[in-house]
Amino acid sequence: MILSISWQSLLFSQNQGPRVEVSFSPPSITLANNTIYKIVIHGTQDNLQYSTPAVSGLKISDSPQVFRSYSNINGVNSARLELSFQVRATRQGNFTIAPWNVKVGGNLLQVPAATLQVLAPSQQDLLRQKRQQEQEKELEQAAFIEFSTTRPFLFEGETVPATVQLFLWDRLPVTRIEQAPVKNGDSFSITELRQPNEKRNVLRNGKRYAVFSWNVGLTAAIAGQPKLSFSTLIRVRVSNRRNGPFGSPFRNDPFFGFGREEQLKVNGEEREIEVRPLPMKGRPAGFQGAIGNFTSQSRIDSDQVSLGDPVRLVFEISGTGNLAAIPAPDISSGKNFKIGPPAFSFDGNQITKHEGKQSFEYILTPLVAGLLEVPPIEFAYFDPLRESFVSAPTRPHPLQVDRGKQWIPNDQGNQSPDNSNESTRPSTSDLFQTEVEPGEWRSLLEASPLIEKPTFWYLQSIPLAGLCSLSFWGIRRKMKGKEKFRRKENSLSKQMKDSVGFNDPSSLLLAFRDLLRLKIAKNRKHPNPSSLASDEIVMLLKAGKNSEEVINSVKELLRNCDDQEFAGNELSKQPVEDLYRKGFGLLKKIR
After folding, report:
1. At what angle do helices 505-524 and 534-543 cross, to 10 degrees?
2. Same domain, 36 and 104
3. Burial grade of 360 (CB within 10 A; 0-12, 13-18, 19 or more)
4. Are residues 165 and 272 in the same domain?
């Protein structure tokens, strides 16, 4: 039994304001098929704020297709906002999405309830579902992410080296990796993912892969059994819309027929990692969170200074562990020294920051004279291999602080001026005469003009050569783009013609729409033809001063194409030859 959908609307202040309609298209499906949950809001084009509803037994996509349209009929303005959610059922029965709210331009609107009937799958549905499962399994093996660590468990706050690997099957037509793998989960932190290492012809699952590897430092933040996984986005090239990334794109050859790119999300397996808390027993007073295997030392740049002169104290930690997370030891000022804040520096593996040397530099200013002692620095760390705390304080440093030279006022009564002048007068035996050697002889002291120097013309030729290269590159790129555009038009025209021979009206209409996009983009200088929706195509046709007859005919063909693609409706009963002649006739009339 087919259930009908009751259309409802929400009206504001006596039938004024936005109006909401909702439906399933189609309203009844078998278990192996999908449907479209469509929401249409009349009277607005403002942005929406909403949370996708959840219904047990239905999987509703989080990324709906959004269409905006605007029209002016007989002086009456009309705006419409449409959201289309892909919906898949996991079991049979009747499912009702209860009324829920969306926020549009500051107004809270209620989306009416809608009911979907899910029937048992037919034999054809079961075969299609089996093929889809095989394709999904093949797709999972075509692109996946793995990550590995040096140990199966970590301690809270510990940093270990880890490797994230992206496997891409050689037969998968990948055009680019849009981003480095992203961590999923807040229980761990990782260092920045930089340029990956690439390795080709890696055998796995009976296939050959290109493997991209990133070395990172993985730090556990919370004790327990947290989960960790990685995901990334890649771009793949497919031959046409019906053969998208979830339709096994590697079964097609995208380099014939000018394929288009689609985004594909690659997910890694979610792993549960044991994170142990640090023990409280035996924790020394100088422990500040250092976990690993370290050695420490300190030094001063001078062991004898004058009172008030600064002394540089350097404290170094070397080894493997969470070097980037170790704070500077707290050294307080006292009666003997005034100590400033430390400066940090790291020397080692800049990618994982797990191995190297962390330095802290303090400036000490002695406040009293005499033989002083720079106190030792208390340092302790936790060794995860021995699972125990280790104290490693530095040794003290003796420092001799002199009082320095003091200023003594000059007593003129006890000293003769003549004796003072006599003592400061230089000795004539130290005086000697030097001979001035002549330099290079120049006939003219005036500088020569700049344009007469060869260096000036050499420097001028550099930007001239760059300008010529850019001009040549631009002309060549423009010619290449025109040739690519022409070849794509020929390919789509051939696809329309072949569709007549195969009696495939769906393929014919898809090729007609792509040809229409190309022609409109060429006439209206649109930068991205593939992004044009049906409503945008109609608006551009009106701007091109096309006749109403042409516009209405194009709208009819686009409506048939959209219904077939998004809702799965049957096409018109017209013969394929009539559709072919009608489509090509319209393409010739487009202005």
Report:
1. 50
2. yes
3. buried
4. yes
Structure tokens at 36: 């479209």
- Statement to judge: residues 232 and 357 lie in one domain: no
Same domain membership, residue 302 and residue 239: no
Among 60, 89, 121, which residue terminates a domain? 121
pLDDT digits (tens, 9 = 90+) for 538-569: 778 777 777 888 888 888 888 777 665 544 44
List the end-to-end C-alpha distance of the chain, in Å, as a whole number. Answer: 48
User: Which CATH number belongs to the domain containing residue 359 in this structure?
Assistant: 2.60.40
Q: What is the pLDDT of residue 250?
A: 45
Distance CA 286, CA 293 (A): 16
Residues 104 and 205 in one domain: no
Which of 307, 431, 315 has the alpha carbon at shortest distance from 372? Answer: 307
Helix (H) or strand (E) run with residue 398 in it: strand 397-402
Residue 188 has pLDDT above 70, yes or no: yes
Place of tokens 């400033």: 340
pLDDT digits (tens, 9 = 90+) for 3-55: 333 333 333 333 457 888 999 999 998 887 889 999 998 888 788 888 888 89
Q: How many domains does the chain have?
A: 4
- C-alpha to C-alpha distance for 2 and 5, rounded to whole angstroms: 10
- Residue 387 falls within a domain, yes or no? yes
Say if residues 159 and 320 touch (Cβ distance below 8 Å).
Answer: no
Whether 354 and 191 have beta carbons less than 8 Å apart is answered as no
Task: Quote the mean pLDDT of the chain.
Answer: 78
Residues 549, 500 share a domain: yes
Question: What is the pLDDT at residue 105?
Answer: 76
**Phi-psi bin for 185: left (phi > 0), alpha (psi -120 to 50), beta?**
left
Report helix, strand and coil shares of the chain as percent, to nearest 5. Answer: 25, 35, 35
Do 116 and 24 reside in the same domain of the chain? yes
Same domain, 200 and 68: no
Does a structural domain hold residue 533? Answer: yes
**Residue 116 structure tokens:** 């979907």
Q: Does a structural domain hold residue 474?
A: no
Q: What is the DSSP letter of 442?
A: -
Residues spanned by the domain of 211: 126-276
Task: Return the HEC string of 129-161.
Answer: HHHHHHHHHHHHHHEEEEEEECCCEEECCCEEE
Q: How far apart are CA 150 and CA 159, in angstroms?
A: 11
Q: What is the pTM of this model?
A: 0.45
Distance CA 142, CA 205 (A): 10
Q: Please give the pLDDT value at position 212.
A: 94
pLDDT(506) > 90: no
Q: pLDDT tens-digit profile of 199-217?
A: 999 998 888 999 999 998 8
Residue 22: the pLDDT is 93
